[in-house]
Design goal:
Blueprint (H helix, E strand, L loop, with lengths): L15 E4 L6 E5 L5 E9 L7 E6 L5 E10 L4 E6 L4 E10 L2 E8 L2 E8 L5 E5 L5 E6 L9 E4 L5 H35 L3
Antiparallel strand pairs: 1-2, 1-12, 2-3, 3-4, 4-5, 5-6, 6-7, 7-8, 8-9, 9-10, 10-11, 11-12
């Protein structure tokens, strides 16, 4: 069974859509009719490791560990531990020209999250052939909720990789935007802005 279809996919109709996290740290899966089901519970720690903990919400309402993540600004690497698969993913942060890129090894080769749009908050996941597998719309500072859209059919392992890395990228993006806001306030204050 292929990990994802080699056929071109419509980027307007995602195969799966995840919405959130909301104010309570819940991420929902949304079906084609717009019905939402709680799917993940997210905890973000400001000063401890792991900085991101995600649990699956079972139909019973109980939670089971899915993954933890921590980004080291010193090494430029995110470490993601997939608890359910007992595996670790290292996502390297690098630059292509002036564009930030986060790369990791997938089952068929290197996968990369790239900023899309002017703000750099939204991201696209591309494979080594530049095929877009997923889109992350962060909506930081807007009233709309974050969205992670899976654009291609995936097996369970690839789906876990896309979701885990996408949520780690989202967490890092929120952190980066907040750091820029603090720096802007300091600079504005220093120059009387």
């Amino acid at each position: 069974m292929p990990l994802f279809s080699s056929q071109p996919q419509s980027t307007t109709t995602p195969n799966l859509t995840f919405i959130g996290p909301d104010a309570h740290g819940t991420i929902y899966i949304e079906d084609a009719r717009g019905m939402r089901t709680p799917f993940f519970a997210v905890t973000i720690a400001k000063h401890s490791k792991p900085s991101l903990t995600v649990n699956r919400i079972l139909p019973s309402g109980h939670q089971e560990p899915f993954f933890t993540s921590h980004t080291s600004s010193m090494s430029g690497t995110s470490r993601i531990d997939l608890v359910s698969r007992a595996s670790e993913i290292k996502m390297k942060i690098s630059y292509e020209g002036m564009r930030l890129r986060r790369e990791f090894q997938g089952p068929t080769g290197k996968l990369s999250w790239f900023p899309s749009g002017n703000s750099g908050c939204d991201q696209k996941l591309k494979d080594k052939n530049e095929m877009v597998l997923a889109k992350l719309t962060a909506n930081i500072g807007h009233s709309k909720e974050p969205r992670l859209e899976i654009l291609v059919p995936c097996d369970d392992y690839l789906l876990d990789l896309v979701v885990a890395t996408g949520l780690a990228v989202y967490r890092d993006t929120v952190k980066e935007v907040k750091q820029v806001e603090v720096v802007s306030e300091v600079i504005g204050g220093a120059f009387g802005g």
